[in-house]
Amino acid sequence: MKLNLREKAPQFSLPDQNGKIHALKDYLGKWVLIYFYPKDDTPGCTTEACSVRDNLPHFAKQDMTILGVSTDSVESHKKFADKYGLPFTLLSDSEKKVVNQYDVWHEKSFMGKKYFGTARTSFLINPKGEIAKIYENVKPAEHVQQVLADLQQLQNS
User: Fold this and answer.
1) How many of the other CB atoms lie within 10 Å of CB of 15?
2) Where are the domains of the chain?
């Protein structure tokens, strides 16, 4: 099911890298970036996560929460966060419920082999809990700047 702009974001509850449960409804009243990524500690995912980390002060100025989501385990997220000093929330969707709710679990192909995995996609959620922007085929090195620019534009409109 494809999600649309201005639609309510699908609700979920998932554990973070420390085992603490986070529910999307807990963030009503704030801007939230939910970014789905394929796998902890891989080149593109590390680039994206470190870019988010390095720009956290800019997100904090906008009172924005960042939620990274992958199907990796809580333990994998903990190692990834510790290795790169990631001070934001990484959620474990090991049962693949949320990647399916947000329609980011897709067939992929690498070197001729087909497999299923998470499409690098992000959702900017407004303080009312609605989808304000959808980012597909995210480029890890450029994504954060794009989100910050869009957030500023959305807040000023």
Assistant:
1) 17
2) 13-151
Please identify which of the residues 45, 81, 91, 151 carries the catalytic annotation.
Answer: 45
Phi, psi of 25 (to 5 degrees): -60, -20
Q: Which two tokens stand for residue 129?
A: 């809990």
Q: Which strands make up the sheet holding 31-36, listed edge to edge?
A: 89-92, 64-70, 31-36, 121-125, 131-135
- 96: pLDDT confidence band, cut at 50, 70 and 90? very high
Thinking of the domain 13-151, which architecture would CATH place it in?
A: 3-Layer(aba) Sandwich (3.40)
Q: Are 100 and 68 in contact (CB under 8 A)?
A: no
Whether 66 and 35 have beta carbons less than 8 Å apart is answered as yes
Neighbour tally for 67: CB within 10 Å: 23
- pTM score > 0.85 for this model? yes
Q: Would you call 50 a catalytic residue per the annotation?
A: no
Handedness of CA 97, 103, 104, 108 (dihedral sign): positive
